[in-house]
């Protein structure tokens, strides 16, 4: 099948108090479950380092040319699977795993303050919520100004908004790795369905001939 849709899903390595990072555990669980025969799923573990993210993301896009990239991160504050609508450019003061933080405290000096995903997370959240998954899903507009937010902003910039970010709680608080994997599967499948609508709408706009 030549027309498989390519999806790249990333999780993060351990950092700080997260000796096991539930995001990468959940992504590996998703890889085991898969996204169905029509989707070519690739996963990758991302370092909790600003500079590594900056070089890694463009190379991942180049290598895989995915239709959608979904980043997953852990949040000690989260008790739900949280869909992030946007990434932020400024306010990066926390040191990474290399004890580094950008001197400018921003992702891109000339970039917009905030970039939103082309996917409407409220719609994704509502659809998954109605699916009887047994895992609570919510939406947020603040990804936390650390590597999660930094990665999301950089990815949204690279992909013209064709990225998503999902925060998951630490393992057992309250969900198991299996539950988180199932939740990721349901969420990413809804995102792909929604992306088809977005693309179809864009195609219709493009077919109109504009007078020069």
Account of the protein in words:
This protein has a single domain, classed as 3-Layer(aba) Sandwich (Aminopeptidase). 38% of the residues lie in helices and 20% in strands. With 212 residues, it is an alpha/beta fold. The longest helix is centred in the last third of the chain and has 31 residues.
Outline of the structure:
The chain is α/β, with parallel strands linked by helices and 212 residues long.
The oligomeric state of the chains shown is single chain
| CATH class call | Alpha Beta
Query: Would you tell me the overall average pLDDT?
Result: 94
Task: Name the helicity range.
Answer: 25-40%
Total separate domains? 1
The arrangement of helices and strands along the chain is EHEHEEEEHEHEH
**Count of alpha/pi helices:** 5
Characteristic key phrases:
Aminopeptidase, six-stranded mixed β-sheet, 5 helices, alpha/beta, single chain, two-stranded antiparallel sheet, 212 residues
Indicate the topology.
Layout: E1 5-12, H1 22-33, E2 39-46, H2 50-64, E3 68-74, E4 81-84, E5 86-88, E6 114-116, H3 121-129, E7 137-140, H4 147-159, E8 163-168, H5 177-207
Helix pairs in contact: 1-5, 2-4, 3-5
